[in-house]
Design brief:
By secondary structure, the protein is mainly α. About 75% of the residues lie in helices and about 0% in strands. The chain is globular.
């Protein structure tokens, strides 16, 4: 598993595309948070990273599929999947190795943004940021990155075309993140809308971002990750 994990993130950083994707992610977050007037944290008047934690999931919707689209699609296309299957590795080891390798890449993109918290803290004249909420939000962001990674690897297992894998992965992440909340707002659903909203990733991401780590949120994220890992494993078995 760890051999696959190492190969995955080394392959991503072995090309210029990987570095460009991470630079664009960090550049966009920096521009939105400190330059663009409509979203600049400097114009809020109080120390808060809420704007960043609202923006980051939407950027991850595109960054994660970029990272994962080659995970298995390239293996199929290049014919190296057959070589991979000759190794003493189970399908589960291949899948979890791919997920772990891609997640390390996503974590590498998220961790440098901690400097935003230190920046806002140092610029604050009174009080400072809510440390508990900020830590919870970063935990939620990492869980979100792990879920999107699992979905992206699953999308990559469906095709040998990396562009199709990117589109399918981004679409699936969007539907699971925002789709349930959008459906829950339909007037015809009434009180049932709340339970439908609970099925979406966004509900649990916002819940854990409050700084209170609820076991139900962790179980939800773990369940989604395992579900898509099992689907991916099933797709490999069909091959």
């Amino acid at each position: 598993m760890w051999m696959i994990c190492k190969k995955e993130w080394q392959q991503f950083f072995g090309s210029l595309t990987g570095y460009i994707a991470l630079v664009i992610f960090l550049l966009l977050t920096g521009l939105f948070l400190f330059v663009f007037p409509d979203t600049s944290l400097l114009d809020f008047g109080y120390a808060s990273l809420n704007g960043f934690f609202e923006l980051a999931p939407w950027l991850l919707l595109f960054l994660v599929p970029v990272v994962t689209m080659r995970s298995l699609a390239d293996e199929y296309k290049a014919g190296t999947f057959e070589l991979l299957k000759t190794m003493p590795l189970s399908n589960a080891s291949i899948v979890w190795g791919k997920i772990a390798g891609a997640f390390i890449t996503i974590a590498i993109a998220i961790i440098p943004t901690i400097i935003y918290a230190f920046s806002i803290q140092s610029l604050s004249s009174v009080g400072g940021i809510d440390v508990g909420s900020t830590i919870g939000s970063y935990a939620g962001l990492l869980f979100l990155g792990a879920v999107f990674t699992s979905i992206g690897v699953c999308a990559s297992s469906l095709t040998n075309n990396t562009v199709v894998a990117f589109i399918v992965g981004a679409f699936m992440c969007f539907i699971l993140y925002n789709g349930f909340e959008a459906i829950s707002k339909l007037p015809a659903l009434g009180s049932a809308g709340y339970y439908i909203e609970m099925m979406g990733i966004k509900f649990h991401y916002h819940s854990i971002s409050r700084g209170v780590v609820d076991l139900r949120d962790i179980i939800y994220f773990a369940g989604i990750i395992v579900l898509f890992a099992l689907i991916t494993q099933r797709m490999l078995e069909k091959r």
